[in-house]
Amino acid sequence: MITKLIRGVVATAALAMGVTTFCGTAQADHHMPGKGVVIQPGQDNVDGENFQTILVIKALKELGYEVKSVQNAKYPTLHIAIANGDVTFMADHWNPLHQAFYDAAGGEAKLSRTGNYLPGCAQGYLIDKKTADKYGISNIGQLKDPKIAKLFDANDDGKADLAGCVPGWGCERVIEHQMDAFGLRDTVKHNQGEYSAIIAETIARYKEGKPILYYTWTPYWVSGVLVPGDDVTWIEVPHSAHPNNVDTKLPNGKNYGFEVNTQMIVANTDFVANNPAAAKLFEVMNVSVNDVSAQNLKMKEKGEGGWKAAERHADAWIAANRKTFDSWLEAARAAAQ
Question: Where in this chain does the record put each ABC-type glycine betaine transport system substrate-binding domain (predicted)?
Fold first, then answer.
């Protein structure tokens, strides 16, 4: 009798342990829906976009995904790599600037593009405020005048030197289109190359008190060094002229030649179909332009540049915004149930 009683107690205990283990496993699986799934992130080699990519990587890791080191390539190549499944996602697709890359890679049949990760990204042309005020320059069309253009001549060839866009970024398509549309070829030279080197030369000229003309975007650290309204001023374009045949005039009537963009997370469609947690995460993540601008400006401080520093910045942002970050994770976990 006693033996049977002991056996019964042991069996009951074993059953209870089994139920507890099952529940624990279920909870663990719910908490880590990405467990066992490997992800390959991609990014263009743009230091100002490290922070955005890292935030997504850290969120994916908290969901249990195994995330490889980021693979760098130019934007057109990245879109194709994502469509082919060689890269899982990129966090810095500029919509609508990168529409041509998106379409060329197969569009919505191959690429998932949801949410509004980083809205309100502006682009355009700027000149130093001193020259703008002295000569009354407010529109890039005024550079058709050789005398005005020569003010921004950095190499004595008689043309204004425009610090422009890296080939393959997408912005160079717009600038090149506008060079023809606004009749600027004879008076303006669009300098293309490594943007960090070109803009460094531009900043050096400004510090020497010389006129400058350049293209930039926000969020990026440049506007923390050359502050619009104080050091430099945005200049407008004569009219809308865009390779995608869109109207770039803003609701306030201003026209800076570029549409306001949203940085979005683009991912492989098969991946998101099979990973609802990641798909929901990509949809709900949202960061402000001001936060990214602040991080980008911090990169210019000693020891704060590069990927490792951006990881520290991301950790600090997550700690300060833990409630928001956790809400993304919970939405992702709920989608996986």
Answer: 39-319
